């Protein structure tokens, strides 16, 4: 059952008391960009979460979606995953980059990435990768930082599949790394493509927007009974001159024209492990409960900051 946009905007969120729920694996300082499959959609009736650390994309499994077993490294040289279920076939989309380039991404080297997908029927055995989208338009690239399409989010719309994605890069000076600049939309008849990108970005940063004046980060688009909503973690420069990122809720009637659904963020930086940035998230609803999984950063510069995954728990008002 799909919720209405007003119901999504009216969810009463609370902070799970035992956050964060996932720490970075091994020697990686980050675990980021969670995407979740609920028990109702999983082949084994358990929670599944995919996220990336420096080595690549990891797969986590849980009975309750809160306490997670030791993860399995699925794919190297991959990041920012998104899981999609289509008639018993699971499609895992992610950003593919050049081998080991993430370890050198803080250096002045041009980035190059594309969006790939693999399929599975059991979440254990995966197909060979298929490229869904590569940088092809002028706004997918920056002459200094590189060519990038990333942060895939797949939504079925009638007879089409809509791929929302991030494109190009912007420098976040106090962090010493780059973040996504624009949000775009690509369309395909078949789930595995080929995808044709719309000629112009759907979203770009606005210097007048306090929550998205530097970069658009990523979006997770949720179909509703009367349109769509999207959770976006825009990148901004605050009044104190420091960068930040916060999750805001947007709404749309047609999936192309978007506006804020709430006057302020759903979740913004605060203290401790969430001190500097709240990054990408994914929405899940199971057993009458809503959840918002997200990753957060505790310090600005890449030499200092660490990222963990936490969760908000909500109920529909």
List the helices and strands and how they pair.
Blueprint: H1 5-9, E1 12-15, E2 32-37, E3 47-53, E4 56-62, E5 72-76, E6 78-86, E7 89-97, E8 111-120, E9 130-133, E10 141-142, E11 146-147, E12 149-157, E13 160-172, E14 177-188, E15 196-197, E16 219-224, E17 227-237, E18 243-252, E19 259-260, E20 277-286, E21 289-297, E22 307-315
Architecture overview:
The structure is a single chain. The chain is mainly beta and 317 residues long. Strands 6, 7, 8, 9, 10 and 11 form a six-stranded mixed sheet that branches. A four-stranded antiparallel sheet has the order 1-22-21-20, with no helix packed on it. It is globular. The two termini are 15 Å apart. The model has no long low-confidence stretch (mean pLDDT 96).
Short description:
The chain has 317 residues and is mainly beta.
> Termini separation (Å)?
15 Å
Unreliable stretches: none
**Helix/strand order, N-terminal first:** HEEEEEEEEEEEEEEEEEEEEEE
- Average residue-wise pLDDT: 96
The tally of helices reads: 1
Major sheet: size, sense and barrel closure? Answer: 6 strands, mixed
Global morphology = globular
Count of beta strands: 22
